[in-house]
């Protein structure tokens, strides 16, 4: 059963140099209380896996503001100008990946797959250093799964057993990340007793969840 605690308690074991998945889409559906708690404990040299770095002062962009990232896997960094500058200056290693490929890498990590083939990026800089495989005269890239030490995700509702419901853009990356990390920390707008919502409403089962934090309404 997931442990209900504060944001500070939930992230206290995230140490410098660890890998963290953070859900959300341009700041929407991002667990802001958890990101704030991570900033406050001044953890450094993080490897962050997220769709984007949002904007200055928003979402994952706050970790860019605080210079806590050493490596970033993302599909878009254009909203936060400092991310591009940090990449050009060699301060931040950025692995840019097509959005669908990034989502599938995370899904593959959670499903225990060894990798997958995709035509996205063939003939572009995305293909550099990657194995190409030809099937039926069509070229594909072999993309490897992504996993992390921790995942920080945002849900609409959670019951006390950790079963989750999402809404709007929070449903994009958060459910995938909940399956692809060793420790999963959820920021839920509301934590309710078991039985408060129907079983077929559950998107992420509580078996994947380690910590629950209420907040971010």
From TrEMBL:
<dbReference type="InterPro" id="IPR004165">
    <property type="entry name" value="CoA_trans_fam_I"/>
</dbReference>
<dbReference type="InterPro" id="IPR012792">
    <property type="entry name" value="3-oxoacid_CoA-transf_A"/>
</dbReference>
<dbReference type="GO" id="GO:0008410">
    <property type="term" value="F:CoA-transferase activity"/>
</dbReference>
<dbReference type="Pfam" id="PF01144">
    <property type="entry name" value="CoA_trans"/>
</dbReference>
<dbReference type="InterPro" id="IPR037171">
    <property type="entry name" value="NagB/RpiA_transferase-like"/>
</dbReference>
<protein>
    <submittedName>
        <fullName>Acetate CoA/acetoacetate CoA-transferase alpha subunit</fullName>
    </submittedName>
</protein>
<keyword id="KW-0808">Transferase</keyword>
């Amino acid at each position: 059963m997931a442990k209900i605690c504060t944001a500070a308690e939930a992230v206290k074991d995230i140490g410098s140099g660890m890998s963290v998945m953070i859900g959300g889409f341009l700041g929407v559906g991002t667990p802001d209380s958890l990101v704030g708690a991570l900033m406050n404990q001044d953890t450094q040299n993080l490897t962050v896996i997220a769709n984007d770095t949002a904007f200055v002062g928003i979402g994952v962009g706050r970790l860019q503001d605080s210079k806590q990232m050493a490596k970033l896997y993302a599909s878009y960094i254009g909203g936060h100008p400092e991310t591009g500058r940090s990449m050009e200056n060699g301060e931040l290693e950025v692995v840019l990946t097509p959005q669908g490929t990034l989502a599938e890498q995370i899904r593959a990590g959670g499903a225990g797959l060894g990798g997958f083939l995709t035509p996205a990026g063939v003939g572009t800089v995305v293909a550099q250093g990657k194995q190409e495989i030809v099937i039926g005269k069509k070229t594909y890239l072999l993309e490897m799964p992504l996993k992390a030490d921790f995942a920080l995700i945002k849900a609409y509702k959670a019951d006390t057993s950790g079963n989750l419901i999402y809404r709007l853009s929070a449903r994009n990356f958060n459910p995938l990340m909940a399956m692809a990390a060793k420790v999963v920390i959820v920021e839920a707008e509301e934590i309710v007793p078991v039985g408060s919502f129907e079983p077929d409403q559950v998107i992420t089962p509580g078996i994947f969840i380690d910590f629950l934090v209420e907040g971010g309404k």
